[in-house]
User: What shape does this take?
Amino acid sequence: MARVLISDQLSETAVEIFRQRGVEVDYLPELGKDKDALLKAIPNYDGLAIRSASKVTEKIIDAAPNLRVIGRAGIGVDNVDIPKATARGIIVMNTPFGNSITTAEHAIAMMFAVARQIPAADASTQAGKWEKNRFMGVELQGKTLGVIGCGNIGSVVASRGIGLAMKVIAFDPFLSAERAQSIGVEKVDLAELLRRADVITLHTPLTDMTKNIIDAAAIEQMKTGVIIINCARGGLVNEDDLAAALKSGKVGGAGIDVFTNEPAKESVLFGLPNIVCTPHLGASTGEAQENVAIQIAEQMADYLTTGAVTNALNMPSISAEEAPRLTPWVKLADQLGSFAGQLTETGLKGVRIEYEGTAAELNTRALTAAALAGILRPLLSSVNMVSAPTMAKERGIKVEEVRRGQEGAYEGYIRLTITTERQERSVAGTVFSGGRSRIIQIKGINMEAELGPRMLYVTNRDRPGFIGRLGTALGAGGVNIATFNLGRQAAGEDAISLIEVDQPISDEVLASIQAVEGVVVAKRLEF
Assistant: This one.
């Protein structure tokens, strides 16, 4: 019988679900705060159910020879070493949709608390001061609410803002114009949102692209007196820059539920004028905790008893029977999606995936999910094969599948075409014998290239000496070329270079490449 350890506070309903499904369970929530005790206990378990208190580090994973699944009751998995778990073959699951309403409501509550200075007014009144003239608030009706990240939670916040008779604008690279219209928001770019919004609320994951999305430069573009709300992730807002803006009055108030370092016992934000701070309460309602507890218990129990995989962050949903043949194609679909997603800078409207020959005979639903996960991952770090189709649908991204028999030179291939607000871009690939995946076409230009961990993508004008100039720029930056693949439309016309490199390409080296004569676009890619 499989054994599960619950090392954080979780609803007792979860315990009952495990037992009803034939899984032995130990409920020891105190272990989440005692890493040594958790380290000692973990070798005895097949599954570990956690919330945010337990830190599943490399050391914990190394001490768990029997561990098969880690289940996070909630969205964020910052406290789990996912690469280490993946290397050990341990599935990491979460519950991405269980606390959306609760988190959205907390953001709205924080907005009211800041706009009307409720916490400070409460403290003053209970101290017997009756300072009625001191607490002059801000009316929200008619104000512009700027939502950064309009996915599951952000769209709920937007609907609540509309209900308050606010004008709602949204920035989300994956939000289509059609989806924006259907939920009643105006889709804008980030610069316009910063310039127009009276209240800015963040609902995006923390990724390399979103870290410090609100910093001194962003605040400088905002209205004087703007209100900033962050109930999403610590690190989205540069706390030092926000503190300076609150002191100067550039920012009129802030509601902060999440911090760069948690638990936040100290912060540059504490004690500043008109700031409301709460201890990561976004998902803290009885209803939300019950929902995520039930979901994670059901998911883990299903996996441990039947092998079914739901909401896994590091494993595709593939049955044991089809895995050997499908797995290399899933990897290819993910890589094609990641390739396209990393090159996408404007709103994504549609995705068309063409399966030809042997690829069309496979489980294309899994392949499409893998491709969508790859596309969305650069901005939505927690997306996986299970959640990607839902997230694409939420953002109004039209997904089209085309299947047909073999027509070209390859026995089978996948072509992925994405349509943005400005252009259409396609990339195609195939799987050779031994499961080796290759890019075979980019933007209609034929080439054959294997994707490595670090790549440089360059589009250029085909002119004599270009390759030498590009190689010189990389060499001057201390970057060694591992492989160099190129293709062109015709002599003297558009060309593409796809280069695998051994060292990371710094911002300075990338800038020098972008300055090379003939370069049209130069982008770093990671796989």
